[in-house]
Amino acid sequence: MILKNTLNLINKNSVFKETIITVSKCDININKTCEELSIHRNTVLHRIKKINEVLGLEPININSDRIKFYIISALLKK
């Protein structure tokens, strides 16, 4: 149920979805993510901060959140 609510929330926000999928694809590497999305580094960091505020995930600093981030990304790609 919690995962379903999380996925619904992300699917309502295309920027969140795009960011989560791309950050995961780039192995949480912010510079690679910037290049992939063609946006400024601070924009990526701001998006990740917003995702942290809404979902409570901090994939850059917390390994367990990184795993959750990858799982959510894989589910969003389906």
Structure description:
The chain has 78 residues and is mainly α. It is 77% helix and 0% strand. It is built from five helices and no strands. It is globular.
List the helices and strands and how they pair.
Blueprint: H1 2-11, H2 14-25, H3 30-37, H4 41-55, H5 63-77
Helix pairs in contact: 2-3, 2-4, 2-5, 3-4
Described by strand count, sense and barrel closure, the largest sheet is:
none
Find the structural class using helix and strand composition.
mainly alpha
What number is the mean pLDDT? 90
Helical residue percent band:
over 70%
Per DSSP E runs of 2 or more residues, the count of β-strands stands at 0
The amount of beta strand, in percent, is under 5%
Which runs of at least 5 residues are low in confidence (pLDDT < 50)?
none
* Overall morphology: globular
Compute the separation of the termini in Å.
18 Å
Number of distinct helices: 5
* Radius of gyration over all CA atoms, rounded: 11 Å
What's the gist of this structure?
With 78 residues, the protein is mainly α. The protein has five helices and no strands.
List keywords for this structure.
78 residues, mainly alpha, 5 helices
